[in-house]
Amino acid sequence: MIALDEWQERARAWLAQAVPEFGLAARAGLTQDEDLEVGRRYMAAKYDVGFSGITLPPEFGGQGLSRLHKVLFDTLEMQVAMPVGYFGVSTAMPLPILIRYCEDKAWVRERVIAALRGEEIWCQLFSEPAAGSDLAGLRTRAEGGEQGWTVNGQKLWTTFAQYSDYGILVARSDPSVPKHKGLTFFWIDMKAPGVTVRPFRLANGDIQCNEVFFDDVAMADSQRLGPVGEGFSVAIATLMIERYAASDADGFGPPIEAFIETLRPLTINGRPALEDGRVRGVIARNHALRQGLDSIRRRALLAMEAGMEPGPEGSLNKLFSVRSRQKLSELALDLQGAGGLSYAEGAYTKADWATSWMGAPTMRLAGGADEMLLNTIAEKILGLPQDYRPDKGVPFNAIPV
Amino acid sequence: MSILHDETQQEIAAETARVLGARRDKARLLEVLDRCGEWDEGFWRTAVEQGWTGLAVPEDFDGLGLGLTELGLVAQEAGRVISGAPFLTYGHGAVCALLACGDEALQDAWLPRLAQGEVRAAIAFAEGTDPIPLCPQVEYRDGGLHGEKAGVAGALAADIAVVSASRDGTPVLVLADLNAAVSGQLERTAIHSIDNGRLFANLGFHGLPATVLAEGDAARDLALEMQAQMAVLAAHEQTGGAEALMLAARDYAVERKAFGQPIGAFQSVKHRIAELYGLVEIARANCIHAASLQGQAGFLEAAACARLSATEAYDTAARDAVQIHGGTGVTWEGALHLHTRRARSLAIELGNGLFWEDVLVTGLTGVAA
Ligand SMILES: Cc1cc2nc3c(=O)[nH]c(=O)nc-3n(C[C@H](O)[C@H](O)[C@H](O)COP(=O)(O)OP(=O)(O)OC[C@H]3O[C@@H](n4cnc5c(N)ncnc54)[C@H](O)[C@@H]3O)c2cc1C
């Protein structure tokens, strides 16, 4: 295997030459559909040079490299803002799950390569109108067994379902047992009869989330991933896969340096804004916080490089960095006065204060709401007791609605 | 220096924790609070016996030749058990000053004795509300110091002091042997404080002889560098204290019941402890990062980050851990106030949050306050 820094240099060089064709400037003014097409071309190019499926086994079209390689590449890729958002869910969770649980390995290999090349897109059908944080409370039903299954119900939020060819799905196969025990995991064909996808607009203008309806959708038993009734563990395993994803101490918003440069020409009470004690306090506090998160990240990378398991403090990043991003973006807009009012929908969140600010609430909910992250830290790291849960141990169909 | 601790460093931390854990004397710490001028000499004997005083002193001067990372790990453990003496941090400040001064006779005279723990040092920079005055009021003339430094930590039991002063309007850093004072050259006025073990005193100088270590811009730069190194050690202590409080709150929340369940099952309690965990880990990461940059570019800003996040962690932990303990949190015997008091004294010593915010932001933006 080639040395890590050499590999990283190669990645950096390849990304640098890809910027003119796929970078932000090249995509300015494109519609989402056009942008997606550029994204697909980028994914194919990346696959051809061997930077796709970094941690996936070579026999399935991956590179068979370490988590560290992946984190390093993702970090570099984020810095140059490549059009990978459409494929984020698709290439992260579904592929390892398919590889692990799906019996038809030749079919899996085809799917993995098509997803890595951006030719096919997968979505994640977990959340529902009545089941978000409380994922195990989901109501979509899967009835049947070895002869085949029928799905009925509704999913909500499903990111990029409007572009998806396939999805991974958790559904309730047995309502007569407690909620965590009656779930089963499947893959589903998004083009199958009875699947309806309805995109809706988010508060920041983005059209990426969908309602997905299932009306008597048929699935073969071979579409089941993992044993009947074990869907919750498979789902949790899915969510754990991305634990070490590239984290960003700026919460995917603009960095402190951008805040400083935004403020440099501004004045407060006729004096330079950067001389104002309140502004200085904000800069210092946010920088110290992000510097700490960044040190945690770098220490985790070093631990991985040394073959050790990184500490649990890596789980702090999203909680702390996104709150910092939200408040800093507020202030950056306010201090610009009328200059803070203009809004260009769909700008890059790491480069535009209004977009960063409008998108921050989403980040505090999706992928684990702040409150759920605090619960996880408290319970899993510190050993504090679970909340009072009146539905614990109660058969799902006996829980009052 | 790597930010991933190696085995030796992990051992230093574990061994320090073991020794200090076994010898912690809560009764003595509480007693000292009432007695201005007393301190926990047992802690200091342990520090000397364990060789912590010489950890970051070069081998040429009878030290172990390690650095801020190792001394920081000791400081973190000392903070966890509320170290009984302020001299590790200030001794390190004196070591920095002597190493930088380049005067071999002075180095030979003091560094081995600092390394062996034979002398205890205090650092006297602050005047009024200014942690490092640009033009100190204390004057240095005819080889002696004149004027007053207020609130010097460790001053009641220090043998030597590094003092900032002005000589004909130019800043100087000087070293004074406090034990060499004769007939009223030195007045130590004890401050009865919220944290008496810190041995705070006002130092009045009336011609106390002292030797110049640095002058002009070099004196200013050295004072800031010393302050930053000491602040990184203090930040480790604060982080250790914050973590101890966070864990105490956790333990209490698991054990104490109200309304039929452990109070730790109430989210307003549980989430507060989870937030403390975050503040502690962020402070720790900043401490490790800053210590690893000792002597390199960016050290000052990293030290400021460590100091700011550690002060926030300790203060927040002091407020919230007491709250989570209910009435037990505010009793004398419960002793949480040892941490509450230490959080305050450590936040005031070495410059408050506003001072470090300005150090950091001036470094980041190039714009002074
Ligand atoms: C932009 C976006 C994209 C998404 N993409 C997908 C996707 O592709 N696939 C998918 O399956 N899901 C997706 N989601 C759904 C996401 O996972 C959920 O929104 C999230 O889990 C929160 O669930 P909820 O919205 O139902 O809120 P709720 O769970 O109803 O939470 C509402 C509020 O109550 C709080 N709360 C809930 N339970 C507790 C508790 N025990 N203690 C304290 N507070 C609590 C929450 O923290 C939150 O503040 C997406 C969401 C968004 C916003």
From TrEMBL, chain A:
SUPFAM superfamilies per record: Acyl-CoA dehydrogenase C-terminal domain-like, Acyl-CoA dehydrogenase NM domain-like
Keyword rRNA-binding carried by entry: no
Keywords in alphabetical order: FAD, Flavoprotein, Oxidoreductase
Record carries keyword Ion transport: no
Location of the Acyl-CoA oxidase/dehydrogenase middle domain: 123-217
Entry cofactors: FAD
Family, similarity comment: Belongs to the acyl-CoA dehydrogenase family.
Listed name of the protein: Acyl-CoA dehydrogenase family protein
UniProtKB/TrEMBL annotation, chain B:
SUPFAM superfamilies: Acyl-CoA dehydrogenase C-terminal domain-like, Acyl-CoA dehydrogenase NM domain-like
Matching PANTHER family: ACYL-COA DEHYDROGENASE (PTHR43884), ACYL-COA DEHYDROGENASE FADE28 (PTHR43884:SF20)
Keyword NAD applies: no
Family designation: Belongs to the acyl-CoA dehydrogenase family.
Ranges where the Acyl-CoA dehydrogenase/oxidase N-terminal domain occurs: 8-118
InterPro entries: AcylCo_DH-like_C, AcylCo_DH/oxidase_C, AcylCoA_DH/ox_N, AcylCoA_DH/ox_N_sf, AcylCoA_DH/oxidase_NM_dom_sf
Keywords assigned: FAD, Flavoprotein, Oxidoreductase
Name under which the protein is recorded: Acyl-CoA/acyl-ACP dehydrogenase
All residue ranges annotated as the Acyl-CoA dehydrogenase/oxidase C-terminal domain in the record: 231-352
Cofactor(s) the protein needs: FAD
Provenance organism: Novosphingobium album
